[in-house]
Design goal:
globular, 22 strands, 4-stranded antiparallel sheet, 304 residues, 5-stranded antiparallel sheet
Length: 304
């Protein structure tokens, strides 16, 4: 189902079309829009397939042709494909240093699949090239359910460090280097990490409180039966331990009586020089049909 949000004095969510692209026995388990191409959509399926969809908006055809598949599949998992994420990378083999994209996907087979994506050199419009690259195995002890690409510039070395934060049925979140297929750090959250939402980016300090090349990320994690968690994912400065990553739980929300499968967050505007950064969080749970709105505030710089 494809819908459009109409922003007006009375906002409304209007259905554009309802199209069945796959057979009756196949479920669409997740979807993710391309970060730059608003016509491109990636989906994961219960049969393990990863597929790309083309969305023709504004509609130029009959409604049944607005949404269609671009190829049979991008990649495939042995069991259900739970999630996917887009991530940019620079093609060093290209003469122009073109920024292409990687498609990361996670499945119930406990694998993290990697595929390269780019536009074809063909003169025909909307033609794409997909190249399955590798499968990262033995990094998770159960199904991979969430993938959050994290990017930050290391000021000292002037390079972009690309890592993934993943969630799994095994109750752990992990920082993974996809280039080396290594787990850099992990933490047990007490519940499966079903969704991971980036709240904010932070700058770490060196041991003498000066700005450094360390950096961090605030992340809102939906942890199924354990509720929601606010995480601080940091790479410690090079002058402490070069390239060392860590994860800590800053806050937890456990008012749900069922599975917390989805959450969202918005920053709150606060006045005052020493005002702490605050965030309005919304978390939901399945069987009890509960939606909770709560607030997370960082400690203020004044120490109060």
């Amino acid at each position: 189902m494809l819908c459009r949000l109409e922003l007006s004095s009375e906002p409304a969510l209007n259905q554009i079309c309802n199209v069945q692209l796959f057979d009756d026995s196949t479920l669409v388990l997740s979807l993710a829009w391309h970060p730059q191409d608003r016509h491109l959509l990636g989906v994961t399926l219960s049969n393990g397939a990863i597929c790309l969809l083309r969305v023709d908006l504004p509609p130029q055809r009959e409604s049944r042709d607005i949404l269609h598949t671009l190829s049979d599949e991008v990649n495939r998992h042995e069991l259900e494909a739970w999630t996917l994420a887009w991530a940019p990378f620079r093609d060093e083999d290209s003469e122009t240093g073109e920024i292409r994209h990687i498609i990361y996907s996670g499945g119930d087979d406990a694998k993290l699949q990697v595929s390269a994506y780019g536009e074809s050199d063909s003169a025909e419009a909307n033609v794409y090239t997909i190249h399955p690259q590798k499968s990262l195995k033995r990094l998770h002890d159960a199904g991979v359910t969430a993938i959050l690409p994290l990017f930050a510039l290391n000021r000292t070395e002037q390079i972009m460090e690309d890592v993934l934060l993943t969630g799994s049925y095994d109750d752990h979140v992990r920082v993974i280097d996809p280039a080396t297929a290594q787990v850099l750090t992990e933490l047990n959250l007490g519940g499966g990490g079903w969704r991971l939402n980036l709240m904010d980016r932070t700058r770490a300090q060196s041991h003498d409180s000066r700005p450094s090349d360390g950096f961090g990320f605030l992340v809102l994690a939906s942890c199924m039966h354990a509720g929601a968690r606010v995480l601080n994912v940091t790479r410690r400065p090079a002058d402490v331990t070069k390239g060392a990553w860590s994860i800590e739980i800053l806050a937890q929300f456990e008012e749900h009586e069922s599975m917390n499968y989805a959450s969202a967050v918005q920053p709150v505007e606060e006045a005052g020089e020493w005002a702490a950064r605050s965030y309005t969080c919304v978390s939901t749970s399945f069987y009890d049909r509960r939606l909770c709105v709560w607030k997370y505030s960082e400690p203020s710089e004044a120490g109060d």
